[in-house]
Amino acid sequence: MRNLILTLMLGLTMLLSGCGYNTLQSTDEQIKASWSEVLNQYQRRADLVPNLVNTVKGFAAQEKDVLTQVTNARAKVGSIQATPELINDEQAFAKFQAAQGELSSALSRLLVVSENYPQLKSDASFRDLQAQLEGTENRITVARNRYIKAVQEYNVTVRSFPSNLTAMAFSFKVKPNFNVENEKAISAPPTVDFGAPAKQ
What we know:
The chain is mainly α and 200 residues long. It contains eight helices and no strands.
């Protein structure tokens, strides 16, 4: 009887290893690690925002609307619980992505406004914060790319035969991925207008 149980366990182990179970586990762990890095970089950016807003406020207090937009966008980002379960919920993931996009947009407007204030642009604290923000945006891009690749590998495994059978048996589902914001806007061809032809 004992030999029969051992044989069945060995057979089950071989069956599971050949049907993609281990691949599903390892790719799921890669997604979690990649997602943690994405969150780490987004948190780093969120931590820079109050100092950046306060620095700009010192030089450009009249830009209250832009400063308020940045502050509100950061608050919205902070209100979303970025738990590991977020990557399994497509709607929550989309909400998270939209909030991060709103913060990116508000920060871009803030940096454009700063161009109007030479004293602000020459301030060492502002330049340092701007450099940190640019570096963080680059890190976010790298972290998001790693996450996108990890999700792609996992989703291919979940949807490919025979590992899709194992995925169904163990409730592994396709995970949402980052998508392009304003997809319609960027897919439209650019309008080129050189103005009216010069009169001779």
